[in-house]
Amino acid sequence: MASVEGVTVPELPQTDPGAEAAPTGPEAVLDIRGLTKRFGETVAVDAIDLAVAAGSFYGIVGPNGAGKTTTLSMVTGLLRPDGGRVLVHGIDVWAEPDRAKRAIGVLPDALRLFDRLSGAQLLHYSGVLRGLDAATVRQRTADLVAAFGLEDATGRLVADYSAGMTKKIALAAAMIHSPRLLVLDEPFESVDPVSAANIVDILQRYVAAGGTVVLSSHGMDLIQRVCDHVAVIVGGRVLAAGTTDEVRGGGTLEERFVALAGGRRAAAGMEWLHSFTE
Amino acid sequence: MTGLLVRLKLRLLLNQFRRSPWQVVGLVLALLYGAGITVMLVATLVALRYAPLQLATAVTVGAGSLAVLAFLVVPVFVGVDDTLDPRRFALFGVERTRLAVGLAVAGVVGVPGAALLLVALATVATWSRNPASALVALVCVPLVVLTCVLLSRIGAAAAGLLLSTRRSREAVAAVLVIAVSLLAPLVVLATNLDLGRRALAGIGRIVAVLGWTPLGAAWAAPASIAAGRASGLAQLLVAVLTVVVLGLVWRALVGTALVSTGRQAKPQTVAGIGWFARLPATPRGAIAARATTYWARDVRYRVSAISIPVTPIVLVLVLGLAGVPGSLLALLPVPVIALFLGWATHNDLAYDHTAVWLHVAAGVRGVDDRLGRLAPVLAVGLPLLAGGSVVSAVLAGRPLLAAPLIGASWCLLLAGAGLGGVSSALMPYPVPRPGSSPFQHPNSAGGLAAVVQSVLFLLQLLAAAPAIVLGVLAYSGGGSGTAWAALAVGLVVGVLVLWWGTVLGGRVFERRGPELLAAALRA
């Protein structure tokens, strides 16, 4: 039911014409209004509007440097916006951060973990910081470790994990307090296909139970297959948003994305690449 | 290839100035410091032109050999300048001899290389006593520079190959801290021993031997010629051979580095959840458990943990050699430990680096964060200082002084912790990153770090001043009333500053969470 009013460039087709205003009320678990972030002269996020209904599996796609991570950081309370509002379950993240943050589980991209802790210690730490008691943390840790296939790694320091394992333990830590909304920045990066399928399975069951997932990814096939809603962010603006079928129109999500992101550069003038250096 | 690498190095150096103002300030300070030392050395060497021959020889060969040794040893431990690590060029398919030559020449470019070149040129002035020695000195300039640069490249590359695992680096770092701490009193011992002429004769013999080793040959050759000894030519030959051998070793190392990966460490395993199981499962307890685990496991904390008790030992040794009476000496270590222990908390948050996002995203209460981080320091520090105070007072022969000692040292620790609670949330400055060498300070730390460090030091001393003054009065003949007053005042002031710092620092932490994360991202 998430309908979205993207701040669209006029000549682009409105993908969700039914939505004049973003829906308010309890069904929008995440409601972003006019969110803006500038770094010096550059406008990284340019007055983005986005609404995510409860129970949706929402994908955010965009080229490198489009402002995805910046947006998600502002949603989760990690980066102070220059303008606009973020409501999570009706609570303003930047006015009442303590209440809002309880409802959010976060997997940031390119931030460190407390990696001198073992996997089990990191999960415990994340759970207790979120206010869980010891017994609950113990039981959920066991479940998460089994679900993510980390049984052999709980005693090892996270610093010694591979990139994919680090991603998995961070993802497990993000959901240990059973948040209403999971905000995942690049959850599948450097994760092997079997583990990725496993993670998708966990997330789909979470969504089926009423949870909401917002994730960013460069894997178009995966987003098209898994997400029921998609937003395309280019240059700090939402160029298209809506259900996955609406956004991709007749073609694949990848085709639509490449068209929106400025099209493929014709590989002219690269003939030297076809005569090889000895 | 060589020209390209030199230009790369120059570009990297120049780009250091295109950073934030604080970083440039730090860099300029470092440059001025280096320039000052270089000017001093050059002036000394020129002045030695008019000194007795024996003295000039002893200074140039002795100090020169030490400098050459430093060029080998420092990169092994500190891992300086890995911008020119040969492994970074492994994928370009450059022929190894050309790469080895290029990297060695590019290694001269930089502050240490430039300083070395100027200092080596100054020896030409030292040995301008006759044309022959001046000529040999001039020939030796490139030999000295090449020897030093090759040694530093070999040291860095060998360390990169052998010490590439996290644990071996940490072990070496810990050993180095202890070695350096113990070296200081040894130097004092050596200089204080009144051996007079015997020492000078000993140095003369050492220098004579050094002149024939790779470390000193290039420095000794012009000295021998100036003394009219033809053996200088043989020393010149040793210097040339040194450069040739080092060149071959360097070429071989480049070849090895190009085709090898780092060693793999055997991963460490932890049974259960350690401290987390022993401390309460609340945010405050969990943060305390995490801080305790890091003090025990993270080499950057371990360096502080080792050097805090070592510093006063060094201090006592130095003062003892300088003739300070034992009864006063016994009273000094405990307050000094308290001072450094309290001060060590002032930048605690920066050690998290960007991992602090977890505290921000979880909306951790500021007070929980502040007190949790302090828990291991206070839990270990307070009883240790109390016990140490009693032992010190008994050793000094005046048990009553335990009271002012506890008062002053607890006040120093508590006030340092309270002040640190505010400053770590208000002005964190960059520290070595998790997993990197504890000596590899980011050059971005620069000016801000120095300002924060010295201001906090002064404030901490200021807060403890009433207790310290009363303690000094008690030492110099005040009655038992003064002694107990020092204890009371110290406790009250310490607790008040800690309470104030925790509340205010907690509020700052909650308000500035995203900014703290942004600062960590820039670091």
TrEMBL record, chain B:
Cleavable signal peptide: none
Residues passing through the membrane, by range: 21-47, 53-78, 99-122, 134-164, 171-193, 199-221, 233-253, 313-341, 374-395, 401-427, 448-475, 481-502
Keyword Transmembrane: yes
Keyword Transmembrane helix listed: yes
Swiss-Prot/TrEMBL keywords: Membrane, Transmembrane, Transmembrane helix
Protein name in the entry: ABC-2 type transport system permease protein
Source species: Amnibacterium soli
